[in-house]
Design goal:
By secondary structure, the protein is of the alpha/beta class. It has three helices and eight strands; from the N terminus they run αβββαββββαβ. About 25% of the residues are buried.
Length: about 180
Amino acid sequence: MKKILGLAILTAAFAFSGAAQELNSKGQPVVKSNDNAPVELKAGETITRGAALGKSDAKKVSFEKVMKNPQQFAGKTVAVEGVIVRSCKKEGCWMELAANKDAKPVRVTFGDHAFFIPLNAAGLNAKAEGVFEVKVLSKEKVDHMVNDDGAKIERNADGTANEITFVATGVELTKSKS
């Protein structure tokens, strides 16, 4: 009888813990998933990927400030937010994030494919923590990005390109309420 009562209590505890919802930084429900499958979010719902946000000492910076002087932020852990302008349609392994839909985007990757975002993430709002990098991409890498991913990249005369990227350790994706 004690075993049955113990199992009933344990089962009830698991049931109630499963009903508890995780909330994002704005107190809205989080939809948990680790894959890149397309999702349909309701206004205000959030998806998280990678490491939880707010756990590091990341200083929040604006894209405008970064774009004015990218070297100042290179290699430093920071927090940014914006709108996803485009994202990878094959794996969900990158996104282009900008301050708004009309601003110049920055390509965001996820630490050597540490996590993925939904294939239909374009248009979602995003918060991310990670590190900015400033580098020169080889002609071969630029060709791949343009031909395979449809990237819009300004090339140097030799076919290479200067790039400001953001390597995210974690992201929160939210559907706008409007």
